[in-house]
Amino acid sequence: RFFDPQTGAVTLDGLDARDVDPAEWRARFAYVPQEAPIFSGDAAGNVRFGRTDASEEDVRDALRKAEAFAFLEGRGGLAAEVGAKGRQLSGGERQRIAIARALVRGAPVMLLDEATSALDAANERMVQKALDQASQGRTTLVIAHRLATVRRANRIIVLDQGRIAEQGDHESLVRAGGLYAKLAEMQFTSA
What we know:
Rossmann fold, 3-stranded parallel β-sheet, globular, two-stranded antiparallel sheet
């Protein structure tokens, strides 16, 4: 955590963030940013940034769940060189490596910050499939402007100018006819 709340509390599994050691609190989260850093070296090393003691099987499993194992097989598998800043990978491949890194961490909460926003439609579909698998069995918080990323979420919270404007699942928000419905109409009818 970086800041304590001014009012109320931030809790996870009944624990108040203010009562937990910051390192222990951070260990409960895995983070996939819009443009995840990829480091020079091989694919396995990049995944292990999520958990340095991850076994080879843990890395393979994370890569499979992230839909990344297949594209790496033809390039040397776990030893595939990704290049400085992941230059030998497409944007979608870099995101799937980042998802594998988050998965190998084994954290109960995954935070996805605009994880598909910089991708073309084909790569977005592949990454979305990986994210759907990655979300199984854990709490997933998604920050997104592309509604396709949150369409299947149990609960969507719509923010407008820093305040909660509405919340619900996709269907109920569309029926409500508010801001989410307007955004959905623009995004899904123009696609």
